[in-house]
Design goal:
By secondary structure, this protein is an alpha/beta fold. Helices cover 24% and strands 30% of the residues. Strand 4 and strand 5 (52-53) form a beta hairpin. The longest helix is centred in the middle third of the chain and has 13 residues, at 56-68.
Length: 140
């Protein structure tokens, strides 16, 4: 049974489930529980209302992440979406300290395969690179 601070929600496509993680303590257990051979993980800022987040870069990348990552993940697979609160986003944030993730900034989208990050989108130009986003989604 999943903890209360994990939320399951379905976005625009009925074939892709988004597992939202709001507590960093749950990240590794969520990754382990929902890991397939390949797992797409999205790191983004928390919503502050009106569909906006506290991170303008996240707001700019949101449409391309939905269109070219979430909507292109193979049918039946899950995406882990880690939502980061502004007050907790410091240099000591667990995702920045993680040996697996090595988060430099948000938004970031990674493809984890067999316990290693094999593809990463994290720079502004990465979120306009449809080829890169599609490769992450389709596990190429």
């Amino acid at each position: 049974m999943e903890r209360l601070n994990l939320l399951k929600s379905h976005l625009t496509t009925s074939s892709t489930s988004i597992i939202e993680v709001h507590d960093t303590k749950d990240f590794l257990s969520t990754l382990k529980t929902h890991s397939q051979e390949s797992t797409v993980i999205i790191f983004t800022a928390g919503d502050i209302g009106n569909g906006k987040t506290w991170c303008s870069d996240c707001d700019r990348a949101k449409q391309n992440i939905e269109e070219y990552v979430i909507n292109q993940v193979p049918k039946g697979e899950k995406v882990i979406k880690c939502v980061i609160k502004q007050a907790e986003y410091t240099p000591q944030h667990p995702y920045k300290q993680s040996k697996l993730i090595k988060l430099k900034g948000i938004p970031t989208v990674v493809l984890v395969r067999n316990g290693e990050v094999v593809l990463r989108a994290e720079k502004d130009e990465d979120f306009t690179n449809v080829g890169l986003l599609s490769m992450i989604a389709q596990h190429d």
